[in-house]
Amino acid sequence: MSQSAGQAPPPPHADPQAQAWQAVLDAARLAEPLAAAAAPGAFALGPQGTLDAVPAQHPDVALLWIPERGWALRLGDGDPRRPLIELYLPICSATRAHRVTVGHLGQSLDGFIATHTGDSQFVTGHENILHLHRMRALSDAVIVGAGTVAADDPRLTTRHVPGPNPLRVVLDPGRRLTDTYGLFRDTSARTLYLCAKHLAGHDERIGTALVEGVEGDESGLDVARVLDLLWDRGCTRIFVEGGGVTVSAFLEADLLDRLQVAIASLIIGSGRPAIRLPAQPVLGDCRRPRYRVFRMGGDVLFDCELRASAEAPLAGAPVARII
Ligand SMILES: NC(=O)c1ccc[n+]([C@@H]2O[C@H](COP(=O)([O-])OP(=O)(O)OC[C@H]3O[C@@H](n4cnc5c(N)ncnc54)[C@H](OP(=O)(O)O)[C@@H]3O)[C@@H](O)[C@H]2O)c1
């Protein structure tokens, strides 16, 4: 795509990354009202990256809203703001009628997310950590498994980027975690703690987190019911941040719209695995999703489309350094 005639380049004093991120936040916020209006919209980027409505023929149109399809990018190929907006735009297009669930793992070259002791700090670099914070900021809810809380006690906030904190959701089917973790003490965001139904009391809390029971048993919750519960609470964009057991459960149930795998040049040898699914005897039955590739510092992010009709790599998939 080439830059429209007369399209203004970013002002020289503005940080393109900050501008791009502001445009992404605005695009996510505007999706629902635009979908409700059921009319196309055209937007230029303000000096700080804010989306300003303009006529469709305006020379500075940077983003278009297309009813039933979502956002389309009209920035030129050489525009430094383009790669970052491009990465997040499919997530910004989500609405209540077209919800999105994204899984992410940061793994070694040999497919591990931590050592056998659970040491995972850090498999991927700073730029991928920033990406995680951006994904949280775009999401209504971020889900992690009990193993991740036990190993990392993450805060799951957006402290490294501007943007709102999501609802934090911990899946602990067997109710093994105690209330001693910082995640259950921190009040910077709301936390929901989900365990097997028979282990949840009525109107109960673990620290500041609300306890709710979900169908399933102590070896695993029914992840489709987890999504139902979050959708009922108005969550449209859901981010499954790890670990491998949890992302694999959503993938196996075919509940992920996108799978993001950040690969670090690291060889762990043996440890906590990334994706693990039931064995497939025939390679032809294994999924080969379409993908885009983004460079993030020293890591490479595969952003896979699991709902694409054509399960084949995009020819000449774009490689874009975003940070
Ligand atoms: N690189 C990344 O992208 C990334 C992201 C998140 C986490 N991590 C790392 O991945 C590891 C966690 O991932 P995972 O796949 O093992 O698990 P997970 O998906 O986070 O959690 C799933 C299961 O962990 C089990 N579990 C293991 N130890 C536990 C404990 N001490 N207390 C409570 N439950 C526990 C529970 O199953 P049972 O009750 O059946 O044992 C739970 O259902 C950690 O080392 C974390 O640091 C890496």
Instruction: Tell me the CATH architecture of the largest domain.
Output: 3-Layer(aba) Sandwich
Number of helices: 6
- CATH class of the largest domain, named Alpha Beta
> What is the terminal separation in angstroms?
21 Å
* Annotation, overall tally of beta strands: 19
Strand order of the largest sheet: 10-11-9-8-7-14-5-15-18-17-19
Helix content: 10-25%
Can you summarize the main beta sheet? 11 strands, mixed
Structure description:
- The protein is of the alpha/beta class and 323 residues long.
- It has 2 domains: 16-79, no CATH class; 100-277 and 287-321, 3-Layer(aba) Sandwich (Dihydrofolate Reductase, subunit A).
- It is 22% helix and 27% strand.
- It has helices spanning 16-37, 82-92, 126-138, 146-152, 223-232, 244-252, and strands at residues 41-45, 51-53, 63-66, 70-73, 100-107, 112-115, 141-145, 167-171, 191-196, 205-206, 209-214, 216-217, 220-221, 237-242, 258-263, 271-273, 290-296, 299-305, 319-321.
- The protein has an 11-stranded mixed sheet, sandwiched between helices. Strands 2-1-3-4 form a 4-stranded antiparallel sheet.
- A hairpin with a 2-residue loop joins β12 (216-217) and β13.
- α1 runs parallel beside α2 (82-92).
- The protein is globular and about 60 Å long.
- The two termini are 21 Å apart.
- NADP nicotinamide-adenine-dinucleotide phosphate binds next to β5, β6, β7, α4 and α6.
